[in-house]
Design a protein that fits this description.
Blueprint: H1 9-24, E1 55-59, E2 63-65, E3 75-78, E4 83-91, E5 97-102, E6 104-105, E7 108-110, E8 126-136, E9 144-153, E10 168-173, E11 178-184, E12 192-193, E13 198-201, E14 207-212, E15 224-228, E16 233-236, E17 247-250, E18 256-263, E19 272-277, E20 282-285, E21 299-302, E22 308-314, E23 324-329, E24 334-337, E25 349-352, E26 358-365, E27 374-379, E28 383-387, E29 401-402, E30 404-405, E31 411-413
Parallel strand pairs: 2-9, 12-30
Antiparallel strand pairs: 1-3, 3-7, 4-5, 4-8, 6-7, 8-9, 10-11, 10-31, 11-12, 11-13, 14-15, 15-16, 16-17, 18-19, 19-20, 20-21, 22-23, 23-24, 24-25, 26-27, 27-28, 28-29
């Protein structure tokens, strides 16, 4: 008798049920090992990687002319905004520097420079170098270190002995030491004579007249005239940093009791000299621009000037075509002689009284760069003050502005 085959229905039912469950779950999920090599993690949404720091371009003018444009705005373009930058400007002849940290505006870093050193002294003309250093803020990648050159220029002006386009003040000590003083921040509401005085020479007490002037010898820098006690007149040419060896102009100048020269009085672009003799005659010496013979033959332009104990040639103080003269009479009244531009002057105009307390009255050129000449006066008690020219002949001088005097030692200003 045959036995029936084993019953397998329960096991087959379980397998079938498992197959049905797998089929209903959707596509099969492979083990992780079957997914292939792992991919890099993606950057978080909304972020981007900065490029390596590089200098893309520079825009530094070959010449910065502060007579025509102020401030100057040299700029550089970096590859990223995420970097800090510093510009260093160096004057080649003196080694003096200007250092400025720059704001990074989307990769553009721009310098705002008004042509001054960090202490407020006007920057010198001539050759300069620039250096841009930049560092990535995240510390990743190389720094930028780039250099270049440029020039600073301004027109030469009377009384400027350090070639920075701004008139200086000269001082003579009782021992004969001759120094130059720079006016700081003359265009603002306060001024000071720089405490960093520059020695121009010693033994200058051999001269009984020292006359700061403009470019007499054709070298594009301000010069100085001196008269020794024998009556010989000398020219000391400036070269932008110091004074060259003196050149003899001629003898017989002891006949004059007043000498002044800081303005173009004839309208030809050259600095002229005026002198008063002991009879009161006013003489004009027209500038030639030649160092060996800086003046032409004298011309008499007036009389009666022995009523004045101080005269000063100034630039265009009161709106005339050329330079003007101011004169103080022995009663302390200051008068304006408006220049006509041909070496002669209009009838005098009274500026005001009370000037007898000033030991010196000096035409110091255009101190605040407004196109008008200014006047410096040294009070016997309060020291030096600046009177700005207004350009109005009825009131040619603005209110008195005292200079903060850092000049050490007693002496005379020019």
């Amino acid at each position: 008798m045959k036995h029936p085959a084993p019953v397998r229905g329960r096991r087959l039912g379980v397998a079938a049920l498992a197959a049905l469950l797998l089929a209903s779950a959707g596509p099969a999920v492979l083990p992780a090992a079957a997914a292939g090599p792992s991919a890099p993690a993606a950057a978080p949404a909304g972020t981007r990687q900065e490029p390596p720091l590089t200098l893309l371009s520079s825009d530094v003018p070959a010449v910065m002319d502060f007579d025509k444009q102020n401030p100057a705005t040299p700029s550089w373009r970096l590859s990223t905004a995420d970097a800090s930058a510093t510009a260093t400007l160096t004057h080649v002849a003196t080694g003096r520097t200007v250092v400025q940290k720059l704001y990074n505006d989307g990769g553009l870093v721009e310098m705002w420079w008004e042509g001054e050193f960090d202490d407020g002294v006007a920057a010198h003309n001539g050759a300069w170098t620039w250096r841009l250093t930049a560092k990535p803020n995240n510390g990743i990648g190389p720094d930028v270190d780039a250099t270049g050159t440029f020039r600073v220029q301004r027109a030469a002006v009377p009384h400027d002995f350090d070639d920075n386009g701004l008139p200086d003040i000269l001082g003579l000590s009782e021992s004969g030491t001759f120094t130059r003083h720079t006016v700081i921040d003359a265009a603002t509401n306060w001024q000071a004579l720089s405490g960093q005085n520059t020695l121009l020479g010693t033994g200058w007490n051999v001269y009984d007249r020292i006359v700061p002037t403009g470019d007499l010898g054709g070298a594009a820098h301000a010069d100085i005239l001196t008269r020794d006690r024998a009556g010989v007149l000398w020219l000391h040419q400036g070269n932008g940093t110091k004074l060259d060896h003196r050149v003899r102009i001629g003898g017989g100048w002891q006949v004059y009791d007043q000498l002044t020269s800081a303005a173009d009085l004839t309208g030809d672009g050259r600095t002229d000299l005026v002198a008063t003799d002991k009879t009161g005659a006013l003489w004009l010496y027209k500038g030639t621009g030649k160092a060996t013979a800086p003046f032409g033959a004298r011309t008499r332009v007036g009389g009666g000037w022995n009523t004045y104990d101080k005269i000063a040639a100034v630039q265009n103080l009161a709106g005339a075509p050329a330079g003007d003269l101011v004169a103080r009479d022995r009663a302390g009244v200051l008068w304006l002689y408006l220049g006509k531009g041909d070496g002669t002057f209009a009838a005098r105009t009274r500026i005001g009284g009370g000037w007898q307390d000033f030991t010196q009255i000096i035409g110091v050129g255009d101190q605040d760069r407004d196109g008008r000449g200014d006047l410096m006066a040294v009070h016997k008690l309060d020291g030096p003050s600046l009177y700005r020219g207004t350009g109005a002949w009825t009131k040619p001088l603005a209110a008195r502005h005292e200079l903060l005097d850092h000049y050490l030692g007693s002496g005379i200003f020019y």
